[in-house]
Amino acid sequence: MNKTFFASLALILNGCASTTGVVSIGKDAYMIAREDNGPAASLGAIKASTFKEAGAFCSGQDKTMQVTKESDTPRSFGQFPQTTLQFTCAKL
């Protein structure tokens, strides 16, 4: 088999994760949404990535991330796992 086949297979198996990145939703309030439509997608994995991204964003401001609201949609028939996190950054 050739390298192109294996590269294509790897892309298919990894699926497609998408994220909004950090989005401002008001004064000192932020949101990140993430979805993964890969065959092995895990709600826990995308949720952990979302929390890490929010934590890093706040840490870059010498602040700590404070969750204000979160919602999850687990994998089910016809539904990919999704998570949304709303947060603020508080002084250390």
Q: What do these coordinates show?
A:
32% of the residues lie in helices and 39% in strands. The chain has helices spanning 3-14, 43-59; strands at 17-19, 23-26, 29-36, 63-73, 82-91. Strands 1, 2, 3, 4 and 5 form a five-stranded antiparallel sheet that branches. A hairpin with an 8-residue loop joins strand 4 (63-73) and strand 5. The protein is elongated, with a radius of gyration of 16 Å.
Give the % helix: 25-40%
Share of residues in strands: 35-45%
Mean pLDDT: 87
Identify low-pLDDT runs: 6-13
Order of helices and strands: HEEEHEE
* Cα distance spanning the termini: 54 Å
Specify the overall morphology: elongated
**What is the number of beta strands?**
5
Q: List the total number of helices.
A: 2
State the secondary-structure class: alpha+beta
Rg result: 16 Å
The largest β sheet comes out as: 5 strands, antiparallel
